[in-house]
Amino acid sequence: LDGIIVGRHVLTTQSPKATTRVALAPAWSQHLLTTRIGDSLTQRPVAASSIRIRDNRLEVNGEPFLIKGLVPVFPRQSPHLTPDIVFARYRDMGVNVLRLYHEASPEWMQAARRHGLLIVEQPNGSTWNEADPDSRWSLGRLMSRYEGLLEAHMGEPAALMANFGNEIELGGQTGAARSLEQAFKALVSRRPGQLAGYATFKLDHRYCLPLIGINTPETGSLYWERALPHYRREWGAFFGAEFGGFLSDTEVTPTAIRLGRITTQWRILNELDAAGGIFFYSHDNWAQPRFEGWNDPFSPDFADDLRGLWDHLDRPKTELAVMQDIFSD
């Protein structure tokens, strides 16, 4: 490793453990750690970047970091779109983080690196009722998928954070939050240095994770002006895991009203010293998932299908200019 050795403990019969501490300069780079003991050789990737929560604030490579995020959508009506095309476009509008509701593919990770973007991801099958928080078996399987995700992307410089899941409370009963809390405590104890997160709509429970994503798109002024400030004062670091300027997945929101809400929501996130926010979402998505029922992917059946910055044919909408202004430095 191209680092400075800052500590070493040599293997002895009295202390059968050898350790060497190496300090790497914080950077968006990946190193390969090679260990040789006798004829045994092992290698593992190591990221030089430093990501942590300090004083309830997100820091990346020792500096405060504000998430200017976007949920990427690839509409089936625009097959010409590729990760390189849209990631370059996102970067040009000021985006620095992409949020996924699944594990990032190697193609996406490589494209994110090329365009200087970071990714917030989560295990496959970890949204809504895809996991049952009341079932120890289901939570155990989810925990295995989560740890598999961490191992798969260990040392990946484009990986900002791995969420444990998204709104899993919806798949359980009244004790779901307590069950999730127990799972999170087990996770933190096994991986004490890991920046682990979770995305939820609940503000009445403080999960024991370093950074919580609060899903806020379908919320009104009371939520933004009173509930979020209370959460920040009482429970610490959070970011707007979804914000979008609409009050429900069925509300047909006039553009002018939505633009005003988006601007207000971003202002409140900054006033609360939140870790930033993630806009929901990039392109109109006629196949937008629903908690219950079915969505016809060949027509915009619901208002929630039309929340993009670009339409399904990749044409820019008025919302794009506002988001460019919000995310500009």
Describe the structure.
By secondary structure, the protein is of the alpha/beta class. Helix content is 28%, strand content 23%. It contains 7 helices and 15 strands. The protein has helices spanning 83-92, 106-114, 136-152, 176-190, 221-235, 255-271, 318-327; strands at 4-9, 19-23, 30-37, 40-47, 51-54, 57-60, 63-64, 67-70, 97-99, 118-121, 159-166, 196-200, 211-215, 238-243, 276-279. An 8-stranded parallel beta barrel has the order 8-9-10-11-12-13-14-15. Strand 14, helix 6 and strand 15 (276-279) form a beta-alpha-beta unit. It is globular and about 70 Å long. The model has no long low-confidence stretch (mean pLDDT 86).
**What is the β-strand count?**
15
Classify the beta-strand content into a percent band: 15-25%
What radius of gyration results from the CA coordinates? 21 Å
One letter per element, helices H and strands E, the order comes to EEEEEEEEHEHEHEHEEHEHEH
What helical percentage do the residues reach? 25-40%
The average pLDDT is: 86
The largest pleated sheet is described as: 8 strands, parallel, barrel
**Structural class by secondary-structure content:** alpha/beta
Low-confidence stretches: none
